Amino acid sequence: MIATDQQGPTKGERSGMAEPYLTVVVPCYNEQENIQRGVLAEMHAYLAKQPWSYEVIISDDGSTDSSRDLVRQAIADLPGFRLQENPHQGKPGAVWAGIQSACGEIILFTDMDQSTPIDQLDLLLPAYAAEYDVVIGSRGLQRANFGWYRRLGSAAFRGLRRLLMLRDISDTQCGFKSMRREVALHLFPRLDAIRRTEAVTGWKVTAFDVELLYLAERAGYRIAEVTVAWENRDVATGKGKSYLRESKEMGEQLCRIKWNELRGRYD
Question: Which residue, 81, 92, 243, 252, shows the most beta carbons closer than 10 Å to its own?
């Protein structure tokens, strides 16, 4: 964990530069209930007050509910916000699609449910002045509205993951991560979830965060982990989530990452 008190660059410091300082990528799959409670307006209210330029890409992952129409309505009067429509690829594919069209110096990807609110960015950005390349949020141990069975499953996943890799990182699964754009463009094409070509159906949780951070560490990028506020605010009902299935799949993916390492696929 790190603590810094420096601020990000001001508009004056970036005068004459056409590119925004920050790109926010928001993956979206069947998020209509979260959109309806005004999360995009929340993001705008924070971002519009900042001294640096920004853009927000809502990267839709082939939603089958009314998410796309709701996003269009919500961002009609929000400068800097745009909808990117993609075929269904799963969350890693949606994030990668957003990254490829991003113009910002720093890219943040954050979940539509805003369980970690956008204002926690204040805690992440100072690390870039300290020359970190990847700055991620950590939920810590106090996770509001997080059931006991999820706490137990999270502890088991964290224990297995730290046994296999990333021993110095506490929380790989917080959906609030940022990195320099050139780092994202370097790492994402190497992810197993991006290279694999099989079709994705429905909601699918992946351990792509683990592989992403593993590749960043392996490449020698400097990673900072910062404790952020987190409360489960996800009210979306159209994803077809299954905690047991997701837990099984994530465990399998951890083992796949380790197997790829042993086979030299990351060399």
Answer: 92
